[in-house]
Amino acid sequence: MNKAFGAALAVLASASLAACATITTKPAAGKTASAGSSSQASAPLPKGLDPAGSKDPFPSTYRPLPSRAVALVGATVLTGTGAQIDNGTVLIRDGKIAGVGAGLTVPADYETVDARGKWVTPGLIDTHSHAGVYPSPEVQAHSDGNEATDPNTAQVWAEHSVWPQDPTFNLARAGGVTTLLVLPGSANLFGGRGVTLRNVPARTVQGMKFPGAPYTLKMACGENPKRVYGGKGRAPSTRMGNVAGYRAAWINASDYMRKWDDYRAKAAKGEKADPPKRDLQLDTLVGVLKGEILVENHCYRADEMAQMIDIANEFGYRITAFHHAVEAYKIADLLAKNGICTATWTNWWGSKLEMNDSIEANVPLVEAAGACGIIKSDDPDLIQRLNQEAAEALAAGRAAGLTITEGQAIRWITANPAKALGIAAETGSLEVGKRGDVTLWDADPFSIYARAQRVWIDGGVAYDRTDPRFQSRSDFELGLEGRR
Length: 484
Hints:
This protein is of the alpha/beta class. Helix content is about 30%, strand content about 20%. It is built from twelve helices and 16 strands. Helix 8 packs across helix 9. Mean pLDDT is about 90; it is low at about 1-40.
């Protein structure tokens, strides 16, 4: 721009401002003039740029399996509420639990299943699975659980890696599992969002997504992040580096939340304001700060769990569950005080130093202190035998002198996992009005010989050990058979 042209523009601008200062506009009838007129208000943001308008960009398309009214009669029923009902009846109608009790009258239009000598429980829930993101066959082409490119990958979502054809889903269903949380791996301080799935055959992950289930955030502490990034010559390479990384991320998220709040406050007043640039990573962390996203925190040692609680208190969020948590028994009172669940195994220990103080009675001791104990898998084999892992914990608790009933212990793989996933109002126990997620066992589920005979999900038969029509195989499995 030359000097003469610039000077001319300056003169014109001054004249325009002067004119504006002397011109008055009469408000329309019934209206008053204000500084925040509509002409100055912020325009609506284009689709995709406003986090508030993208809470559920990948919505569930789940549809329940076909169902009919059914009555399971004569079974020993473990309800998931702590109760055991002998000679019990469970009624399922329209996909919901319609009745639970001893000697209930079965309406004439119900299909009756003779469950005498058998056991009935809620459908099992696995709070820690990598099905679909680390599927079978276990090859590099399928290794999609860890975005190990940065210590903070809160922007990634496990559902975008889930392969619905993973045979693990079918095997888990044969083990009585009706719902599972699929998480990213634990290479990072912030691994990304998990997704809660209904364990039904589907062509897409959206066809499996549990409608309305909260999103979760996978965090990890301890050896994994410092090993992964220290090995790359990057931070964190120590546990103190881990903590510094969490705190820096929460500071950034708090500032991001403040900027969006300021923008919305101005927009609500009709004032012109520039919105912050949307950041997918910070969207997830802000969801945690607002209580919309649940924190599922990989952490083994008691001292580190206590530190993570301190960090949560510093930034005003809460931890829903510590995963693996083999030393939870050491701080069971602290977990109870903060309402934090423990999702762990029974007899996994020693594969790395932070697992060294694992004990089989971990979950029973946690529950004895008034906290929430959960048995989970983190493994494609164990997800098929969650009942056996719970049985080992039950035996260990009793050996430690604790009085535990099977009615209480079944909650470790049903009701308590539902609580940790924010879906306890819908599933996890056999109560009237909840989803018809039910597993029929041919023996006491705490017996090593017990097998799931039939599994209902939302009242529809999802698995039947005696009927090939309800023994689903994925397209991948069928393809393999066709090439043999």
